[in-house]
Structure formats: C-alpha cells, structure tokens
Amino acid sequence: MIAGISAEYYTQLERGNVSGVSEDVLDAIARTLQLDDVERAHLFHLVRAAKQLPVKADKTAPHVRPGVQRVLDSMTDAVAFVRNSRQDVLSANPLGYALYADLFANPQRPANLARFVFLDPRAREFYVDWNGIADAAAFNLRATAGRDPYDRALTDLVGELSMRSDDFRERWASQDVRQYRTGTQRFRHPLLGELELAYEALAVTAALDQIIIVYTSEPNSPTHDALRRLANGTRFNADATPTEA
Q: Per-residue pLDDT for 76 more than 70?
C-alpha cells in the first residue's frame, strides 16, 4: 500500500516475474523497504539481469597496465593493491605484498581475498575484526553476483566457499549486500603488532573491473611508524614474496 502497488503484483515480483516492471515501481519498493544505496542498486541489477539473456563478460585475462603499477609503486607510505569484483588481487605495491604476506604465501593465483578470509586459518589472527571482514567479503560477493550473475569464475568461487566454509555459507544465505568504499580496518601483524589503517576504494576507469584499494595511516601515529619500519625492512621479489632487505 505504501509503495502504491497491489499485494498480488508485489507477490509476482518476489517470484521473479519482472518482465514488465518499471523503474518507478522499483524506486517505490526501494523507498518503502528503506533500502540503502547499495541495496537499491542490487535490486535494480537483479531485475535487469532477469530481463536479459546471459552475456558472458570477458574477464579471462586480468592484468594491470604498467601505468597503474607505477601509480601503486609511487605510494611508498601506503599499502595499495588492485583487485577485481571477485576479490582477486591482481597486483600490489611493495607494502601491499609485505602486509598481506600470508595472502600471497598461498601459491594459487590470482590470490583471492575471500578465499583467504574463509579458508585460511591465519586470516582470523590477521584481521582484528574477523567477523566484520567476513561479513564484508561475503556481502560484497553477493552484490557482485547481482551485477554479473553469469560470471562463471564468480559462480565457481561461491560454490567452492559454500562447500568448504560454514561461515561463508551462512552469510551468503542471508542475502545481504555491501560494497567496499571507505572505512577503517585493523590488522594484527606478527612483527609490528596491531595496525589501524583507513582505506579508500578507487575505480580504475580505463580498465574493466579493476579497483585500487589504498590503506593509509595517520601521520606520526604508531601505525605510520610501523609501516615505515615494514617498508624499510622488506623488499619485493618476482615471486610476490616479501623478504628481508
């Protein structure tokens, strides 16, 4: 009644019969359900996907352009890496490889943040708020699935995580959605102790499905000093393994 549609019509929408639904109706439903902007976008993505035939996006050869890599490497006081919407980490700067050493210790490539969070026991020690990170990882994948439900690699990843992780399966079933944009994250480094970093997600507009994630610290803070020690004490080699300088 609040959305201005009949209960019968709304029931049809819930059952997936969206062939004739307008954006005005979707807007009314989003307002009535008090969806935030990420949830509203997810609703529109689901409806648009249901109206279209499957189209397979070309994401078979992810790579980072040299110019983007130079941008990463120029961030000497920040942790930075490039990932795609499936949370595959495609490249990083030296501090990124050093901080996420446990992620890159797994020889499987590309390294995947969601697989690390749910399947690698070291992640529970690495992330101070593991539950919050696990929520964000699962809900971000759910939002990605709404945008591109025919991505075979994403489907395979979700299937693997669902089979191997009860924690992921429960979160996936909740249907919640979330996107990485900005915030604060705490890490527990084995040598440097607890680190608190602010992050920003920056789209690479010249590349398909690439996002730069940048973690920075407050100047003159303990975390800032710790990152300097990490930068001075490690170097990056071609095998993506940080080693002592």
A: yes
For residue 213, CA distances in Å to 96, 118, 149, 208 come to 10, 20, 24, 15
What pLDDT is recorded for position 205? 86
Do 93 and 207 lie in one domain? The reply is: yes
How high does pLDDT run on average in the chain? 84
pLDDT at 52: 65
Could you give the count of Cα atoms lying within 13 Å of 2 in the half-sphere of its Cβ?
A: 7
β-bridge partners, 127: 187
Given a contact cutoff of 8 angstroms between Cβ atoms, the answer to whether 168 and 176 are in contact is no
Query: Quick check: helix, strand or coil at residue 154?
Result: helix
Residues 47 and 99 in one domain: no
- Residues 24-41 pLDDT 10s: 777 777 777 777 766 776
Alpha-carbon dihedral of residues 92, 94, 95, 99, nearest 10 degrees? 80
Q: Which domain holds residue 22?
A: 7-51
Task: Check whether 157 has a pLDDT greater than 90.
Answer: yes
CATH of the domain at 72: 3.30.450.180
Answer yes or no: do 92 and 190 share one domain: yes
Farthest CA pair distance, the chain: 68
